[in-house]
Automatic annotation (TrEMBL):
MF GO annotations: kynurenine-oxoglutarate transaminase activity; pyridoxal phosphate binding; succinyldiaminopimelate transaminase activity
InterPro entries: Aminotransferase_I/II_large, Kynurenine-oxoglutarate_AT, PyrdxlP-dep_Trfase, PyrdxlP-dep_Trfase_major, PyrdxlP-dep_Trfase_small
Name recorded for this polypeptide: Probable N-succinyldiaminopimelate aminotransferase DapC
Reactions catalysed: N-succinyl-(2S,6S)-2,6-diaminopimelate + 2-oxoglutarate = (S)-2-succinylamino-6-oxoheptanedioate + L-glutamate
Main location: cytoplasm
GO BP term (any one): amino acid biosynthetic process
SUPFAM superfamilies in alphabetical order: PLP-dependent transferases (SSF53383)
Provenance organism: Streptomyces adustus
Required cofactor(s): pyridoxal 5'-phosphate
Family under the similarity heading: Belongs to the class-III pyridoxal-phosphate-dependent aminotransferase family.
Aminotransferase class I/classII large domain: residues covered: 25-380
Task of the protein: Involved in the lysine biosynthetic pathways. It catalyzes the transfer of an amino group from L-glutamate to N-succinyl-2-l-amino-6-oxoheptanedioate (N-succinyl-2-l-amino-6-ketopimelate) in a PLP-dependent reaction, yielding as products N-succinyl-l-2,6-diaminoheptanedioate (N-succinyl-diaminopimelate) and 2-oxoglutarate.
Amino acid sequence: LNRRLAEFGTTIFAEMSALAVRTGAINLGQGFPDTDGPEEIREAAVRALRDGLGNQYPPGPGIPELRTAVAAHQQRRYGLSYDPDTEVLVTAGATEAIAAALLALLEPGDEVIALEPYYDSYAACIAMAGGTRVPVTLRPHDGAFRLDLDELRAAVTDRTRLLLVNTPHNPTGTVLTREELTAIAELAVERDLLVVTDEVYEHLVFDAAEHLPLAGFPGMRERTVTIGSAGKTFSFTGWKVGWITAPPGLVTAVRSAKQFLTYVSAGPFQYAVAEALSLPDSYFDALRADLLAKRDLLASGLAEAGFEVFRPAGTYFVTTDIRPLGESDGFAFCRALPERAGVVAIPNAVFYDHREAGAPFVRFAFCKRTEVLEEAVRRLKSLP
Ligand code: PMP
Ligand code: GLN
């Protein structure tokens, strides 16, 4: 393994899911639903397979039906208009979109500012692209992890090329506010930075929180690559259908990298996701209501079990602080938890450069059936 990748080892998600299988523990680690997405969308995939739609290489940018559906979705939800032919690119999940964007847009030595804790592929992809990551740490404040705008501004240097943003934010569940996004946008414009914004949890927001796409802020459309994914919104994480929306020059750049990574992907699933994106609002509302109830079940259960809970405004993850349990090392806690309580969780420290800042935080996923969450809570409450 080369020096660029050596520090990353095996992704925590693979490690923890393997641990769950080995120990038979309830897996609240890796974020994937234990119930598949809509029957009619599965049927659409079967129909595409049977009718020979997408069984051979689909077009490089993605099938026109899906690009049109992505553009229509951005218009309908956010009033953002993108040309399906020149401003939308279909990718092999958001993961490939992140990789292709960073490989295409960074010069060696360019600095990338990422909100810490950051999703683990960001660090690896910045490294593969020869960039340097500059983390800005979200810190607990009034029950949520918040961005310090002065710290963000101070992190920009003459070598900063790109801001890598994620809202709703994995693993903290923070949804960036209009004020925070305005400040990010102003900074990007002032310092002429590119922005890659990972919005895969755009539909998973709760209570009064609202997802605002960064591309909608003044001066942002022309400098922003927005990333979406069918995995989270439609509960098909195994299909690996994602996309970007961006102005033509940025789409062309990202496609230059994408063509040599996968060229294309998942032909029949693209047809099905095109249909999924056109589902009525009631689908998205029901998804949110279902996850809201599960969030409350798990968050309350964890609090009763003695954790400090950061009730998330978005995503399907809840971050906890284990110090009230007399613990301080999230890694050790998560490695022992399957034996101690039959539950798997993720130590947030893996998402930090400043590992000590993330040490006491542990993430639990709540995209699971109610009875599974109830059993997990029962087990955690009897934690020895
Ligand atoms: N970004 C974030 C913030 C994620 O949490 C995930 C995975 N859950 C991804 C990207 C990857 O998405 P995909 O499965 O579509 O590749
Ligand atoms: N995004 C998912 C999570 O945060 C995991 C995806 C993966 O396994 N790479 O849990």
